[in-house]
TrEMBL record:
<feature type="binding site">
    <location>
        <begin position="84"/>
        <end position="87"/>
    </location>
    <ligand>
        <name>substrate</name>
    </ligand>
</feature>
<dbReference type="GO" id="GO:0005829">
    <property type="term" value="C:cytosol"/>
</dbReference>
<feature type="binding site">
    <location>
        <begin position="29"/>
        <end position="32"/>
    </location>
    <ligand>
        <name>substrate</name>
    </ligand>
</feature>
<feature type="binding site">
    <location>
        <begin position="97"/>
        <end position="100"/>
    </location>
    <ligand>
        <name>substrate</name>
    </ligand>
</feature>
<comment type="similarity">
    <text>Belongs to the ribose 5-phosphate isomerase family.</text>
</comment>
<dbReference type="InterPro" id="IPR020672">
    <property type="entry name" value="Ribose5P_isomerase_typA_subgr"/>
</dbReference>
<dbReference type="GO" id="GO:0009052">
    <property type="term" value="P:pentose-phosphate shunt, non-oxidative branch"/>
</dbReference>
<dbReference type="InterPro" id="IPR004788">
    <property type="entry name" value="Ribose5P_isomerase_type_A"/>
</dbReference>
<comment type="subunit">
    <text>Homodimer.</text>
</comment>
<keyword id="KW-0413">Isomerase</keyword>
<feature type="active site" description="Proton acceptor">
    <location>
        <position position="106"/>
    </location>
</feature>
<protein>
    <recommendedName>
        <fullName>Ribose-5-phosphate isomerase A</fullName>
        <ecNumber>5.3.1.6</ecNumber>
    </recommendedName>
</protein>
<dbReference type="Pfam" id="PF06026">
    <property type="entry name" value="Rib_5-P_isom_A"/>
</dbReference>
<dbReference type="InterPro" id="IPR037171">
    <property type="entry name" value="NagB/RpiA_transferase-like"/>
</dbReference>
<feature type="binding site">
    <location>
        <position position="124"/>
    </location>
    <ligand>
        <name>substrate</name>
    </ligand>
</feature>
<comment type="function">
    <text>Catalyzes the reversible conversion of ribose-5-phosphate to ribulose 5-phosphate.</text>
</comment>
<comment type="pathway">
    <text>Carbohydrate degradation; pentose phosphate pathway; D-ribose 5-phosphate from D-ribulose 5-phosphate (non-oxidative stage): step 1/1.</text>
</comment>
Amino acid sequence: MVSEYNMKKIAAEHATKYVQAGMKIGLGTGSTAYYAILKIGEMVRDGLSIQAVATSEASEKLAVEQGIPLIPLREVDRLDLTIDGADELDDQLRLIKGGGGALLREKITAFHSERLVIVADDTKTVTQLGAFPLPVEIVPFAYEWTIQSLTQLGCTVQIRHKPDKGFYVTDNGNYIADCKFQQIPQPEELSSRIGSLPGVVEHGLFIGMADQAIIGCQDGTVRILHSGNSVAKNPFDS
Ligand SMILES: O=C(CO)[C@H](O)[C@H](O)COP(=O)(O)O
């Protein structure tokens, strides 16, 4: 039995096998993506030539520390591969993301990537999304009204706070409303309803974006989920 952190590490390091010379890579955010960034840093120091874009200021700082060459967005047309974490995922690779507050940059980066590979430990896989509160990035202006609109969708909303009590502010200067639905039986419908609310910048439902998920399991192996529902049992299957 391996620890949750080792499950994350195993999954993240497996995903770095898809990184090839010359690629432009999106670097995700969070404690699982962290291990992918460390491994990519090691690969770069061993001579691999890649360029990267980070999905948060935290991941950018880590990438710089690791010696990973970062490219300005204006110089990138499309990314070859993004490796990122998730807070929940179902067997159709529908995701809840944003636990780390980086969902807006993560979604933009995923949208402009040829391939999005999700890395997660097995505790993140669910049969139905919703136990994890859905993070929604909202603008500070009239945020109380936006919270009211979100509440009308059937959830309880908590505005995210920093440990020292003030509001948590994203890298984009916005707030995060964590929306507890308990169950999200129709993520597609909820996605378009939340997306149409004024004051909402972006939400953490990622639907039809992930191509693959690498799941780190308790027995130290990985399980690979592909979009379209097929599951590769062989831990070394790509
Ligand atoms: O969406 C995210 C950050 O906005 C993260 O990918 C997500 O919260 C998972 O984080 P972790 O790997 O630490 O469990």
